[in-house]
Design goal:
It is a single chain. This protein is of the alpha/beta class. A 4-stranded parallel β-sheet has the order 3-2-1-4, sandwiched between helices.
Length: about 100
């Protein structure tokens, strides 16, 4: 099973809890998270791995209140999505179930 979750803590926390519960019940879970969530994820699911970039920089830019800064995040998000999909291609091909959330 592959669970992939990206975003802030509010985005990732439910998938971390789901992954932890599934592992506790004996399921084989691969958990993909943003690098900024990797340490916490590995405490719950040892097979967790980092994918893409952290969202702190994007959030900081987008919340500056300047429209120019919001627009400057678009290329970052597009590139990160491309990287995420590329990095998840192998694990997804091996998974019998895929769960995604952001």
């Amino acid at each position: 099973m592959l669970i992939a979750t990206f975003g802030t803590r509010g985005d990732t926390q439910p998938m971390l809890a789901l992954s932890e519960a599934l592992v506790a019940r004996g399921h084989d879970v691969s958990l993909a998270v943003a690098p900024s969530s990797l340490q916490q994820a590995r405490e719950l699911v040892p097979s967790a791995f980092g994918v893409g970039m952290g969202y702190e920089e994007i959030s900081r830019r987008a919340s500056s209140g300047k429209l120019r800064d919001v627009f400057s995040t678009i290329p970052l998000v597009r590139e990160d999505i491309r990287v995420q999909l590329e990095m998840l291609e192998g694990p997804a091909a091996e998974a019998d179930v895929i769960v995604g959330a952001s």
